[in-house]
């Protein structure tokens, strides 16, 4: 699907071996692995994992003649992966996704998931969370949440753009180096290709959002995103935006078709959703998460949550 990731560039990481215990030690630390087990299959056992890039984006290849099972997680990154050969499944036993050769699949973001791989050749692209949010802000009202619709199958056209973007990134890194403008821009192009493949769950930015005439409401929105966990009033937001309360209300209704407090409530609802996805039902109660984000009436919270995410909060927590 792409050129070999490590050709012509110094590896960011490189491990290999023929021992099952060494494979678990080498690989599990990269994905916060728990209860990993690797076994021999038919033929000789071996594994190899190599990656190039930097802390904003890396392109990797993982191979094994053998099997690997366990529990994993990625934090602070968005990881897209696909297999060129072998059998692989993630989220086994819950929202299981069986991978098809050449079809990119997103790892669950900031939540634990199980993996089950056998005799595979896998490619991965790790994108820094901040990079993805920064590029997403070109199209969406980004509030700090990273939420993709992982269940939709990418179109053939979007996968073709993804392949082109990844191949161009590898070429830029190999030919121009990690400090080059070409590598920097190729990272952003790869993030844009990701946004083309999987729907980003955020509100599309209004037309002209980046223009000077919307500078003050942008300031208010950015303040909401940064301080949603704190007590906020309309007066607080008006002061930050250097507008009167009435002026701020009118600007929100004109540009975003809602009041500042409605927008704040939606941001807090998304943050509660993120927390529930990451939480363990044995350690956290829905009411605790709701209260953390300012929702004190559980009936209203559950109803709003259902309308926004298509399921009750307790269902999200049990995933």
Walkthrough of the structure:
The chain has 319 residues and is α+β, with helices and mostly antiparallel strands. It has 3 domains: 13-130, Jelly Rolls, CATH 2.60.120; 131-197, no CATH class; 212-318, Arc Repressor Mutant, subunit A (Orthogonal Bundle), CATH 1.10.10. Helices cover 41% and strands 22% of the residues. The chain is built from 11 helices and 8 strands. The chain has helices spanning 20-28, 129-136, 156-176, 181-197, 215-227, 234-241, 245-256, 260-278, 286-292, 298-309, 313-318; strands at residues 13-17, 34-39, 46-53, 57-72, 77-90, 97-98, 105-106, 113-128. Strands 1, 2, 3, 4, 5, 6, 7 and 8 form an 8-stranded antiparallel sheet that branches. Strand 5 (77-90) and strand 6 form a beta hairpin. Helix 2 crosses helix 4, helix 3 packs antiparallel against helix 4 and helix 8 (260-278) runs antiparallel to helix 9 (286-292). The longest helix is centred in the middle third of the chain and has 21 residues, at 156-176. The radius of gyration is 22 Å and the shape is globular. It starts with 12 loop residues before the first strand and ends with a helix. The mean pLDDT is 92.
The CATH architecture of the largest domain would be Sandwich
CATH homologous superfamily heading of the largest domain: Jelly Rolls
Class by SSE composition: alpha+beta
Strand content: 15-25%
Low-confidence stretches: none
* Relative helix content: 40-55%
Instruction: Give the strand tally.
Output: 8
